[in-house]
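Lab notebook, bench 4. Still working through the backlog of constructs that have no structural model yet. Next entry is a single chain of 340 residues. Request: give me the structure tokens for it.
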Amino acid sequence: MNFQLLKDTVSLIFADDKGLLAMDESNGTCNKRFEKLGIPQTVESRRAYRELIVTTPGLGESIGGAILFDETIRQQKSDGTPFVKVLIEAGITPGIKVDTGAKELAGHPGEKVTEGLDGLRDRLQEYFQMGARFAKWRAVIAIGEGLPSSGCIEANAHALARYAALCQEAGLVPVVEPEVIMDGEHTLEQCREVTDKVLRTVFSELFAQRVSVEGMVLKPNMVLPGMSSGSQPTLDQVADATVSCFLRSVPAAVPAIAFLSGGQPAESASARLNAMNARFKSRLPWALAFSFARAIQQPALEIWNGHQANVAAAQKALYHRARCNQAARRGEYSQEMETK
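Model written out:
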């Protein structure tokens, strides 16, 4: 196992206050987003949209890594150039989503466990040969009446740890994503308590599976109240709750925490990340970065709307959102960036 390669990959991805662009939506999820906008749900439409993303001028200035889906890593530009080659030439490290989705957890109504460990060692070797240098696995934890159960947390934490160990064996940096989802009526404090328990359990399993935390990336949720709670916490309240939680549960040896957006509005995700870095960056042991999907992509997708004539305008919107999040990593994001 080449631990130096893993550390070098993490350093490369997050250099110059860059972050991750998650463009690893499954075909089904991508098609649902297309359907809402009246875009044809075809292989060619998905390829054209992804080409728009990877060819965005200057994207590598603020994006250090792109998480791809299995279909995406095998796709090419219209001129035949592989997407992986386009990304590498832009200074963006290719990554790959390797789980096969969250399925119902037997004996635990309302809870899920992520699958995909069968055959993973061989798939990771193939992805490495294709140019991927990091991977991602997402676990889903719901808050509700009697939820989450210890069984659900432990099952997902164990799967995340086994995935991470296999990644490091293959020379791929594991992006470990235990997502406490925003759906529900839970309070900010309930989210903080559950997130703390989940992270403690995940790192206990990572250590048990001999995962080097220096060669991984944590992709967690921000600590937020449920979307149906009616609560509107301030930026400082979110920053305080999130950072205080992580200081208690995330080892200092972890090099980077790259937040998921989890359905937050694009500007809210940027503003909350900015608040954390503006207030705490100089005192934290790990970098606070981003690994956003919709919070970077959605404005561009709506502008593109399946039409080639809109590509340039959509790319400008994508570039803008990426730059906003780079500024948030520096604690320099402001609403003025959105109105200029």
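Notes after review: The longest helix spans residues 188-208. The longest strand covers residues 134-141. Flag for follow-up if needed.
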